[in-house]
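User: I'm putting together notes for a lab meeting next week and I want to include a structural view of one of the chains we've been expressing. I don't have a solved structure, so I'd like a prediction I can at least talk through. The sequence is below, exactly as it appears in our construct file.
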Amino acid sequence: MGKLGDMWKKATGEVEPAPPQAPPPPVADARPPRSMIFTSGNFSLGGTNDDQRRRLESFGLSHVGKVREGNEDHFVIASLQRSLEVRQTNLEDRAVLDPLCGPKAYLYAVADGVGGLDGGRLASGLTIRTIVEYMSETVGSYHAVAAGQEHAFLDPLNKAVQRAHEKLRSTFGISQGGPSTTLTIALVVWPQAYVVHVGDSRAYHVRSGTLKRLTRDQTMGAFLIDEYKMTEKQVEQQGFNNVLSSAVGAQDMTPAVSAMTLEQGDALVLCTDGLTKHVSERQIADVVKDAANAEAGCRQLVDLALEGGGRDNVTVVVANALKT
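Assistant: Thanks for the context. Below is the predicted structure for the 324-residue chain, given as C-alpha cells.
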C-alpha cells in the first residue's frame, strides 16, 4: 500500500486518496449512497438558435456492488467550454455571438481498474484524471472546427489515451501484471459522437428502443470467438471471457475508434462490465427507452445489476439527446 501511495504522490503531486469506505449491507432495490454518485446537470449546446434547442441531459452512477470490498471504477461527465462568455451587449442580433458562448462539446468516460493492492483503483482514477487534463489543454482547438471533421476530434482523444497509458507505465512501472485499466470515452460535438475504447467497458447507442453496441470487447474471449469460432459458453468455461487483451497501462494497448451521428431522442450508454455481467442488452435498451430521464435510467440499470448478483463494481453513464 505504501509503494502505491508513493507512486500516486509522484504522479499527481497529491496525497494518495483514502480507500473507499466499506459498502453498506446490500439491498437490491436500495439506491447507492450519495457519496458514490457524481451527477451532471442539463446542458444546452451553444451555437445557432437551432443548436440551442438541442439539449444533452446526462447522469452517472457508480456502485461497489455486493461482493467487492472497494470500488475500482471511475467515471467523469464534463462539458468542454468555450473561452468567451457574453454578459451584456446592445447588439440587436445577440445570436451572432452564440457560437462564441457556452459549451462546445461534452466528454463522457468510464474506466475499470485492474490490479491488486488497490492498484486498480489508482490506475483507473489516474487515467480519468489524465484524460480530463489533456482534453482541457486542447479544448481551444475545437472552437473553429466543424463537428463532422473526425480527425480533429479523434486525434486528441487518441493522444489523451496514449498520455494516460504512458502515465500509468511511468508511475507503476512496465512489469507484466502491473496496474492497468479499461477505458471508454465518448466525445459529443453535436450532432457527432466520437468513441475511443480500450478493454471491455462498453459504449452503446440507443435509438427508438433499438440498441447498438459501439465497442468490441478487447478480451481473449472475444478474440477466440471471432477467430476460432468458439462459443460464448466454451469461452466462459475456460475462463477467457474476462481476460483483457488490451488495457491502458498494460503491455498491449490498442485503442479502437468509431464515430456516429446522433439524432434528437437518441441516448448513449457507457458502462463497465459490472453491468453487462448481469444485465442483458435487451434490458439496457428497454430501461433507457422507458426511463423518465438519465438519472432514472442509471439507477434502474444499477439496481438490475445488484439484483443479478452484483459480483463486480458497476458504473453507468447515460446521456440523452432530448427531443424538442
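A couple of points you could mention at the meeting. Residues 7 and 65 are 27 Å apart (CA to CA). Confidence is low (pLDDT under 50) at residues 20-53.

User: Perfect, that's what I needed.
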